[in-house]
Amino acid sequence: MALDKEIFKEELKQRLRENYAMELEDASEQEIFYTLGALVKARYSDAWRDTWKYYVDKNKKQVYYFSIEFLPGRMLKSNLLNLGILDTAREALTDLGIHLDDLAEVEKDMALGNGGLGRLASCFMDSIASGGFPGNGNGIRYDYGLFKQRFVDGYQVELPDEWLQSGNIWEVRRESKAVDVRVGGHVYLAETNDGKLKPVYENERVLRAVPYDTGMVGYENNVVNTLRLWAVEIPDSEEDKYQSIQGRRELEDLTAVLYPDDSNEQGRLIRLTQEYFFVSAGIQSIIRHYKKWFQKPISKLSEYVSIHINDTHPALCVPEMMRILIDEEELSWEQAWDITVKVMSYTNHTIMAEALEKWSIDLMQRTLPRMYQIMEEIDARYVQTMQELHPHDLVERTRIIRNGQVHMAHLSIIGSHSTNGVAKLHSDLLKSVVLHDFYIIYPDRFNNKTNGIAQRRWSQIVNEPMSNVLDETIGKTWRQDSGDLKLLRNYQSDQAVLEKLAEAKKINKQKLADYILGTTDIEVSADAIFDVQIKRLHAYKRQLLNLLHIIKLYQDLKENPSLEMQKRVFIFGAKAAPSYHYAKVIIKCINETANLINNDPDIKDRIKIVFLPNYNVSLAEKIIPAADVSEQISLASKEASGTSNMKLMLNGAITLATLDGANVEIRDAVGDDNIYIFGLTEKEVYEYYENQEYSAQRLYDENAVIRRVLNAFIDGTIPNIVYEGREIFDSLIKYNDEYFLLRDFDSYVEAQEEIDKAYGDQTFWQKMSLINIANAGRFSSDETVSRYAEDIWKIESKDSFVTEKG
Ligand code: Z2T
């Protein structure tokens, strides 16, 4: 379906006239953006409908990806690319005197997620559609996405993210598909006339769930799947119950905001209600759709439906499916359970204990009484079955309800046929440590699915200069199949190619330098090493280790101004959960250190620190193409996978990493010579936990460099951090450095020194960079999704079918 440039221009003008009664010359960027959005949406509406119809007509098994977070970012360019009209649109707009890139900036990020988990869900949506797989997303349409971050006096300040303020061009409200969700009150079982036990609800509240659908456009294959997000409303029937403004507010607040905690569950009532709300609405709509269009008996559900539980937030899928099959479809418990387990699958995203979701029995019972009854029954039957096969204490440790709490990970594993981790190391740790008890009980349920990224977005869309060099060097097939990036390996000693890649990098760095100047007033040189750490602020990710190294460099330079060293720009992007005090203290310390160093006339441009505020998908798109060094320095065993590591690698940054998460697989892909590995291994970390021999105090006493760096936090070297500096110091010394920063410090410094040396030899550096790009293909979410489809969901790809239209 090629689109002619001239037709495109005419259509754009025509739509402007129709919708805004305006000529192009008089329209604002906003108005043009909305018009272009509508045009794009019209381009895929037939394919959207045809895709849906095809799945129904062919009775295709579909996967529903349930996630409490989706983080697509901006969709304009990605939709244009996938529709095959990005270049046409760009050229047409240029003719009209408009820059597509400027127009794209008008779109607000859709930021309904915290970080990796939500972004992964969106990468999967792209790859599921692009692979021609029948699959849909199911989540929550938050009125406010992840908070907007500002810095005031170096402190993080959170502002609401009003992403819907000027409307959302991509979504379609589908009122006719609304469903009711019941929460609260009491439920008891009563005998019906035919002797069956049926639940009777009392004093429950009914919520209306209204779906908003967004087309998920596949890459040049005429497939458009659906991301369905639910918003709460007050049903007409309940109007009289909500007389008070306060009562209304409470209810309308349910889908108002995304909880801003990435790896920390807080056990709040509203959060639990959010979880049930989108789970119940989603499953009801799946069953309704199945019964209406597939016309198969409910007993065959697992042959046509697969439901994925993205971390434990949608774990109530298990009891909710049971409720519908038993209470509404009147299946026996055994039959319902058999179907449920076959339908469900679950991904674990973390081993951090504080992120493992648990709810008090009391809260669960009060909020979701029917869910609780069903979970009690699942739990009782689990114990009954397993106690004949396994030791008592093993069964006790793994049951769903214990010590007054409901364990959502246990529910997810017991109620599904597949549990996977998100990188090899992580999946191994699940089996050997974190979920070892379950591995004994269900060895066949465990598997690995290493994360991947939407490679087309993270190369073609964000990095045009590099993409052009790739086209000239290896042809264009990599744009479709990122596996073909490996063709680049043949050019690792080709000086001309290396130089062209370096030029592309330089263009990106200059562009970022301009952006940095514009937003922070800090002047950075594009000749410096751009050393990047972008991810949520968390103690285990060790942004503080990065800072300790920067302070060391600063002290070295102050002491010895003639020290030879490459210029460096340390770039940070990170949001801290608003309630995460320690993470906010680290932000303050980085900002104050930045102030000190950036303004020290002795340092000039030898070191710069730039903490860019409000890190999100669209900021990542600006930073990543310009990165030279990718900091992946979490304490080994703590980062489940990481995905920014993959994006940075794809853009030719050299990874500086611990052997954690997917870093291990990146090392395997590029070889030891093209990555900088440092620090404790996961085994050594566990050894420390066992022998309890770690002493941060001793490292402080015995290591003069460490001592000098840490003292900077409490002796006034870094200004304006009297309290914060003390807190950092105490966390490391008094509280014995939970994440072994001091243990890894020397080894980190050494790796940084090697990087400094390597960058001095540009040919050597560029070759490493090329090898990283060439081997990034395997981290495509296209690949990851294919593995899920084959091993877990059992769904088939539809070979591109074409809708011929005029
Ligand atoms: C999250 O982004 C991740 C894990 C979570 O555990 C929660 C959130 Cl919001 C409950 C991240 C992991 O930290 C990261 O290592 C991984 O790459 C990402 O999920 C996607 O799997």
Q: What's the short version?
A:
Pfam families: Phosphorylase. By secondary structure, the protein is α/β, with parallel strands linked by helices.
Q: What share of residues is helical?
A: 40-55%
Shape: globular
- Uncertain runs with pLDDT below 50, 5 residues or more? 802-806
Q: How large a portion of the residues is in β-strands, by DSSP E?
A: 15-25%
* Count of individual helical segments: 32
Small ligands present: ligand Z2T
Mind telling me the CATH class of the largest domain? Alpha Beta
* CATH homolog superfamily of the largest domain: Glycogen Phosphorylase B
How would you sum up the major sheet? 10 strands, mixed
Secondary structure tally: strands = 25
- Output the radius of gyration: 27 Å
Within the CATH hierarchy, at the fold level, what is the topology of the largest domain? Answer: Rossmann fold
Question: How does the helix and strand content classify structurally?
Answer: alpha/beta
CATH architecture of the largest domain: 3-Layer(aba) Sandwich
User: What do the pLDDT scores average to?
Assistant: 96
Instruction: Domain count, please report it.
Output: 2
Span of the ends, CA to CA = 9 Å
